[in-house]
Design a protein that fits this description.
The protein has about 140 residues and is α+β, with helices and mostly antiparallel strands. Helix content is about 30%, strand content about 15%. It is elongated.
Length: about 140
């Protein structure tokens, strides 16, 4: 909830009506960053403003073999998320206390062994069908 007076005054869609019996709970600000997903040790680490997403991932043991390093994203405490883009220059991502860094699993849809296991029975069935059609057409 944004309770900034100027924002609420300029954008009436963000200004909501409070009724009797409503309450607003403001939790204590967290001083940690969570790293979840495909890392060696998913953990919650102490927040430090000078650390980057890569630093937090390294402190969680680094990426494991099934991680997809191209789709790492950060969920901020307000629910917004942003993709971590890797560049030659170290870019600062907006990591705030209470953020969660998510490392998704690599889908690997074209793994050679799995692809071979799928295609081999199909080719065998096609060969059997072709042989049956050839045998029927010769008669």
């Amino acid at each position: 909830v944004n309770v900034d007076y100027l924002t609420l005054k300029t954008d009436p869609m963000k200004n909501f009506r409070v009724r009797g019996g409503d309450s607003l709970y403001i939790p204590k600000r967290p001083y940690s960053v969570s790293v979840v997903g495909e890392v060696l040790n998913a953990s919650t680490l102490s927040y430090s403003p000078e650390l980057t997403a890569s630093d937090y991932i390294d402190r969680s043991g680094g990426l494991n073999n099934s991680a997809d390093p191209t789709r790492i994203f950060i969920i901020l405490p307000d629910g917004q998320s942003s993709l971590v883009k890797r560049t030659f220059f170290k870019s600062r991502h907006n990591i705030l206390p209470g953020s969660t860094i998510v490392i998704p699993r690599d889908a690997r849809p074209l793994d050679a062994v799995n692809l071979t296991q799928i295609i081999t029975p199909i080719l065998a069935d096609l060969a059997t069908s072709a042989a049956a059609i050839a045998a029927i057409s010769d008669n």
